[in-house]
């Protein structure tokens, strides 16, 4: 039985637990089906260690539950980034990490792998075989930390030069760049990279506060990186789509085209073209695993153009069924002098739908989209203002009016004892 | 992106490497003890990192320190700052294409930065993403005046200086005042920056105010230092609700998962009631965000039910009742649009 280690080899192992602890936060050990108690205990201990100060625990009738408790407005940096900085390594890895740059920096003519191994033994009194050193040099060259030059039959390694903007003559620019990084680490895709940059610069985000920030997105960044690579190389992909609802897993094959992001619901999607079904489809990014990059797709540009043409007709992420477009009309009561902010909201959130004044304090919103069912959550944010609602998809309209009737029953209808 | 395959989960970004780097740096300035190492590991590592890092250094499995007496330690080497990795360069390059970058870098600086990164491919492009529900009236980042105000605000925040501000109010009237800025809030959903500051009233910086950056008509630095009480407000809600909003969540329409994710950016607490087969979720919120939380809760319809607090519940009831009355006061033959 292996001893518990704080660091991990495989990110996928912790991704799911972290998500569950963060998003749900009510599960106890027994709720994690298909995992051994020991695995659960180790992952729980790890997360508590990574996120010291951000986790809470509580005893329930079913056992102890652990959850991650964070208000995004109260933190300068995403605490979940800690998981990305937890990759395990060997004793040789860490020693070479410190020895090699120190030696190479002091060698204007660079070092070969055998020279580096010899120097390490001489200067630091630690012996490595030249093969281990060679592999580490190559690894750091791949990362961009070292460069190499072939001289005769020898490959000599050098420290990669700093960016010109890092030079003292551009101090102002570099400071501004790092200030930007302090902001973007909280909002940009792959904010974790910004966090590593701030680590390097010994800087922190001191004054950017984030509202509507979905910290959990970072856990999908590895998946996102693979998908973007496929998109940039115009390749097809295959992946496993794992349902959060029923736990089933289906293999998808398609052409990845864009990442759809919701700034409200915290969901991100991969938009892909399913060649077998001749249609676009969005799938949740947090449901995807086992991404495989396949062959380049020759008509990639055509699909991109087709998608761009289709996008304004999506209210959210649905491309609808095979039928025609759907229409939704909603009449709203907006008290003009006092409630202009509601009109503003209607216009900034209406995704291109038309707004027309139809009477005193009365406005008509008309939207024309692939799937009006997707609009219903938004329509319900106007609860208390909708004078009338009509649509070409009767089921959608019925759904929202039924919801309002149920809400009235739930909140306002007199209870039997009161009748 | 050519043949480059990046890996975010790489040991070169390891928290342990950073802790060891810190230990070596400290040991370079003075010989350090085991206790010093433990203190550094506690400050820069995870909760249990010291338990691994310190013994590994002491028993020379990580042979990075020298010692004469076995009690104090000096570094064998301190390599200093490493070059940026390709992944970091590539991320920086991607930022240069972001529409908000002009707030941070002048056009000349952007040009210089682009020149510095000319051989680097961006990690992602703006066109790779589609933010489909972001508000359409975001800040005007391309406006020269906006950029100028933004940079002045950044200087004020960095140097801790009070600002003199001209601000366009609701009716378009411009007011002038001094304000002690303490943070810049950004909302991805609204696509807006808001300046959080203490506005000077009655000779004191006492009124906690949030200003839309887009409505700042002018701002300049003063030489007055921001009071400490303003800085203490950083990363804290303006006014936290005394009681959380308590929701009962059914299992209908995948509401639990949707609700948990939707409200994931709030401090919240969820429990399951086995007997009733429902979930209860308490959401702690900033009073400044109450209306926003209210309409978000309403967007879920009847699959979640607000149980309290009373003031929040009464707002829900009021809107639901009004909605019922509105739809039922109209006479409709059909809600279907003609084919």
Description of the structure:
The complex is a heterodimer of chains A (419) and B (339). Helix content of chain A is 36%, strand content 24%. Chain A has 419 residues and is α+β, with helices and mostly antiparallel strands. In chain A, the strands form four sheets. In chain A, strands 9-8-7-6-10 form a five-stranded antiparallel β-sheet. In chain A, a hairpin with a 6-residue loop joins strand 7 and strand 8 (268-274). The radius of gyration of chain A is 28 Å and the shape is elongated. Chain A starts with 10 loop residues before the first helix and ends in an 8-residue tail after the last helix. In chain A, 42% of the residues are buried. Chain B has four domains: 11-75; 86-128, no CATH class; 144-231, SH3 type barrels (Roll); 245-327, Alpha-Beta Plaits (2-Layer Sandwich), CATH 3.30.70. Chain B is 33% helix and 25% strand. Chain B is built from ten helices and twelve strands. In chain B, the strands form three sheets. Chain B has a five-stranded antiparallel β-sheet, covered by helices on one side. In chain B, a hairpin with a 5-residue loop joins strand 4 and strand 5 (174-187). In chain B, helix 2 (34-44) runs antiparallel to helix 3 (49-58). The interface between A and B is large, with 154 and 137 residues. Chain B: This is WYL domain-containing protein. Chain B: It comes from Blautia celeris. Chain A: This is WYL domain-containing protein. Chain A: It comes from Blautia celeris.
